[in-house]
């Protein structure tokens, strides 16, 4: 067998199958609020294949025709497959949103978010609190799957509320039983937020519990080797990448090489990073007007320059740049030949663990399937 034939055989056997969607390499971009909009997805896609999921859309506003939700649920003409993450707390509302998305031909894949650990959400019974009520979780998933028809539905969740209330195995089995095409686990509890190390052993346990659909792992994939190690140690079928690609869209090129068994590409110099950074800002400006685009770009700027010593003095200027021309001019104030910093660098959300807030009496009747109020839909993409 030739090297090319062996690679093709490897690709066929290790590709991630989500319903009719074949994903190679088996890598999924995690939705992040204000981050994974179309310009960033397009930039990441330029570096490597995979499944690129949109920013999270909240079901209620979408059903009501909210203009911002409709904009976020749009995709570029070049995006395929079109993958969207949906969040909601009421089975009927979720089903209505899915029927709209599928009926309008907007999506090829829907992912349900049950992982948000934000206090203002869980204290109203939303986000990570939903899997605590298995009958409610089942009703939401069933409504989405039935409304989706042939469009595959997946779900993402955390290990549970805290170490005393773990729900991930039950949630995974519910997803499998109700027709999800795959399930994904962020291997932290809601109490952990993004602190500490992701507990990959939970991904392995979920893989043993869920036998008929793919299991994806999420948490602490900072380098391409981390993804390979997660698959090797847990047996998961694919990986979900979130904070690791912030300011580093070329990570998907490295992931593609790693899963293909190819040598890793050389990391970019600061000059190459600056060129990508400018391209990102230009894509944002083409998607919206320059002023809001540059404001949106600030969420990315500090991550692009993280670890580069010569860039540290210009970070305040980066964060204040109002025009593309200002961003381009700052290249003259750094050492463009500076090599990429060695070692993994933690990006994105962090912070200390929390005590998870739940509604008063929430744990008294876990069999209750009553949806929380619509104010529990006030979520972000944390998962």
Automatic annotation (TrEMBL):
GO molecular function, one term: flavin adenine dinucleotide binding
InterPro entries: Aldolase_TIM, DUS-like_FMN-bd, DUS_fam, DusB-like, tRNA-dHydroUridine_Synthase_C, tRNA_hU_synthase_CS
Region of interest (Disordered), ranges: 360-383
Annotated catalytic residues: 116
Enzyme class: oxidoreductase
Domain of life: Bacteria
Annotated positions binding FMN: 31-33, 85, 156, 186, 242-243
Catalytic activity: a 5,6-dihydrouridine in tRNA + NAD(+) = a uridine in tRNA + NADH + H(+); a 5,6-dihydrouridine in tRNA + NADP(+) = a uridine in tRNA + NADPH + H(+)
EC number: 1.3.1.-
Cofactor: FMN
Keywords: Flavoprotein, FMN, NADP, Nucleotide-binding, Oxidoreductase, RNA-binding, tRNA processing, tRNA-binding
DUS-like FMN-binding domain location: 29-323
Listed Pfam families: Dus
NCBIfam families to which the protein is assigned, alphabetical: nifR3_yhdG
Family: Belongs to the dus family.
PANTHER family reported for this sequence: TRNA-DIHYDROURIDINE(47) SYNTHASE [NAD(P)(+)]-LIKE (PTHR45846)
Role of this protein: Catalyzes the synthesis of 5,6-dihydrouridine (D), a modified base found in the D-loop of most tRNAs, via the reduction of the C5-C6 double bond in target uridines.
Protein name, as recorded: tRNA-dihydrouridine synthase
The species this protein was found in: Nannocystis pusilla
Gene this protein is translated from: dusB
């Amino acid at each position: 067998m030739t090297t090319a034939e062996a690679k093709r055989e490897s690709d066929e056997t290790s590709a991630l199958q989500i319903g009719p969607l074949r994903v190679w390499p088996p890598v999924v971009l995690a939705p992040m609020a204000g981050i994974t909009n179309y310009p960033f997805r397009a930039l990441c896609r330029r570096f490597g294949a995979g499944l690129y999921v949109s920013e999270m859309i909240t079901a209620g506003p979408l059903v009501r025709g909210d203009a911002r939700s409709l904009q976020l649920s749009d995709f570029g003409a070049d995006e395929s497959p079109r993958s969207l993450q949906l969040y909601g707390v009421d089975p009927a509302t979720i089903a209505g949103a899915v029927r709209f998305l599928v009926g309008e031909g907007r999506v090829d894949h829907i992912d349900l978010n049950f992982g948000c650990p934000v206090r203002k959400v869980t204290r109203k019974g939303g986000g990570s609190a939903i899997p605590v009520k298995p009958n409610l979780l089942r009703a939401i998933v069933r409504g989405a799957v039935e409304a989706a028809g042939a469009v595959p539905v997946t779900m993402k969740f955390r290990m549970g509320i805290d170490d005393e209330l773990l729900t991930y195995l039950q949630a995974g089995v519910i997803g499998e039983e109700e027709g999800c095409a795959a399930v994904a686990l962020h291997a932290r509890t809601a109490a952990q937020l993004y602190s500490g190390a992701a507990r990959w052993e939970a991904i392995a346990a979920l893989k043993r519990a869920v036998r008929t659909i793919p299991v994806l792992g999420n948490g602490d994939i900072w380098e391409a080797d981390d993804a390979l190690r997660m698959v090797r140690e847990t047996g998961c079928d694919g990986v979900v990448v979130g904070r690791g690609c912030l300011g580093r869209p070329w990570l998907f090129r490295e992931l593609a090489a790693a899963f293909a068994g190819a040598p890793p590409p050389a990391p970019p110099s600061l000059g190459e990073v600056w060129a990508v950074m400018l391209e990102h800002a230009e894509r944002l400006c083409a998607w919206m007007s320059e002023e809001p685009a540059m404001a949106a770009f600030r969420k990315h700027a500090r991550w692009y320059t993280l670890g580069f010593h010569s860039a540290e003095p210009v970070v305040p200027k980066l964060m204040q740049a109002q025009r593309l021309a200002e961003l381009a001019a700052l290249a003259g104030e750094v050492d463009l030949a500076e090599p990429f910093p060695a070692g993994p660098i933690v990006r994105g959300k962090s912070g200390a663990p929390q005590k998870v807030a739940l509604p008063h009496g929430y744990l008294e009747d876990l069999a209750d399937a009553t949806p929380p109020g619509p104010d529990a839909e006030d979520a972000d993409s944390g998962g």
